[in-house]
Amino acid sequence: xxxxxxxxxxxxxxxxxxxxxxxxxxxxxxxxxxxxxxxxxxxxxxxxxxxxxxxxxxxxxxxxxxxxxxxxxxxxxxxxxxxxxxxxxxxxxxxxxxxxxxxxxxxxxxxxxxxxxxxxxxxxxxxxxxxxxxxxxxxxxxxxxxxxxxxxxxxxxxxxxxxxxxxxxxxxxxxxxxxxxxxxxxxxxxxxxxxxxxxxxxxxxxxxxxxxxxxxxxxxxxxxxxx
Length: 227
Prior knowledge:
Radius of gyration: 17 Å
CATH architecture: Alpha-Beta Barrel
């Protein structure tokens, strides 16, 4: 995999609560410069990102219900519909872990289904927060999400208890869903070596705020004959 191919798998992310419009402008410029797949921002920034990325191939992604996962289904549905109307291409949404761990599987399933339906063609990525799940819970959550129609399962928000992406958890997610569902790795991905190992383990996308460092590191290694 060369630098261009890796960049095309990166969702370049800034979900910091204290991010400013200048930070978002820089995020978009970096995405255009390096050929990242998408920028991922909090919903308030979507109207600005739509304008900043108009005429480019960079996708616009918003993360909702982030990172707690406790909003009502109705609130999430309304927000997703609004994001679509504003021009979003993707939505990363936190599943309701409380439902899952309570054994409230029908409530869990309906919550995911309603969000997928609201997305109405947008790419959906369900964040499972695997660090707080058992292996069995992770497999179950991933399979329900596939049945509900999500496009991707994602291991972590990367915040709080979310924990970093590991080769082991990405392999588990890849085994838990069919080939039609893809896998996004997120959390603690700071260099090209880690990103490439996660892709080898089964990740289709890499979510990271360190996209520029990853690409520059890979360029440096390629010049030196590494990777």
